[in-house]
Amino acid sequence: MKKRVILSVEALSPQLTGVGRYVWELAQRLPVEPGIKSVRYVRNDHWIADPMKLLIDGPRRKKSAYELWMRKVSKKPRRLRDRIHARFSVCHGPNFFLPEFAEHGIITIHDLSVFRYPETHPAERRAQFDQEFAATLGRTAHIITVSETVRQEVIAFTGFAPDKVTAIHQGVGPTFHPRAPEQLSPVLAGMGLTPGGYALCVSTIEPRKRISELLKAWRLLPLALRNRCPIVLAGSSGWLSDAILRDMADAEREGWLRYIRYVEEAALPALYAGARLFVYPSVYEGFGLPPIEAMASGVPTIVADISCLPEVTAGAAMLTDPDDVDRFVRDLERGLLDDGWRQSAAEAGLAVAAGYSWARCVQETAQLYGRL
Predict the structure, then answer these.
(1) In a domain, 176, yes or no
(2) Same domain (yes/no): 73, 203
(3) Is residue 182 within 8 Å of residue 261, measured between CB atoms?
(4) Three-class DSSP category at 155
(5) Which letter does DSSP use for residue 205 in this model?
(6) d(CA 303, CA 318)
(7) Is 216 exposed, middle or buried (0-12, 13-18, 19+ CB in 10 A)?
(8) Per-residue pLDDT tens for 119-159?
(9) What confidence tier does 88 reach under pLDDT thresholds 50, 70, 90?
(10) Which residues of 256-277 are buried (b: 16+ CB within 10 A; e: fewer)?
(11) Are residues 64 and 115 in the same domain?
């Protein structure tokens, strides 16, 4: 029997994070999956007719007749609401939580950082988990994780039976692929960059991403190498980032760092493909989309040797310990200068990244709906 689905889309916004990208791929691809009869979208317990509108900045739009009707219905007695929601066979909360009205459903847990690294999350985020996460788990029939590493963590943390937790890897979009320098120059010139003339880290600026350690190691590289190949940081500032931002400002003044903050989605593939090296020293991730996007772009990649990153890069990336500064410096220098490693890493990265696709991710999710 084909499934009617309610999908929660709180994570959608004009500036997509990794979780937002995952939710957007589900939102646009689920309606055309063979086992799906229909998909409705909910955000903060309000019905959304078109999730695409959530990706666009601008004035508040006029609500559709469907949204107005559903908002009216949501205020009706519970028995009437239950008759409406009974038509839907699956409710999926792809960003940790189920909607309040859902008596049962599926959730996606991307990582357990709010529990493992609570100091790196804002107080309101920690309060939300304290107040709502246990209640959501009590209504959850099945959990999706985005890596096997996190699946094992979630089983141990929640006590869910292993057959109630499924790992489904995320994907990489077709816009991430190798590009010739002449294709890159028009985009990179607007950022003051040249193809092959910089290393790249795409990351939120916060402690567990180990940006401070990256700066410390980069400062120890030979001066001529730093000048020839500055490190470019792209990403929004996160929680507890003030000290890191001060270190970054010092590095910018010294001339070997560029901080370009949030990059528009249309320009991101060129930024990846133009990098000489991609570095991702984060010590805790659920999946880690940026390294896979870099590998799909044909860029040699270095990641931390911890959490899910060895799993998802599958031997194609150099593994380093960002907390061991001497090793980190040696690995960065090799990543920039060792042409033999660089060639083999680029080829291996392309092969591994080819195994990840959003089409497969959504297909496996829809198949899971069908089995429940």
Answers:
(1) no
(2) no
(3) no
(4) helix
(5) B
(6) 6
(7) middle
(8) 777 788 889 898 899 999 999 999 999 999 999 999 999 99
(9) low
(10) bbbbbeebeeeebbbbbbbbbb
(11) yes
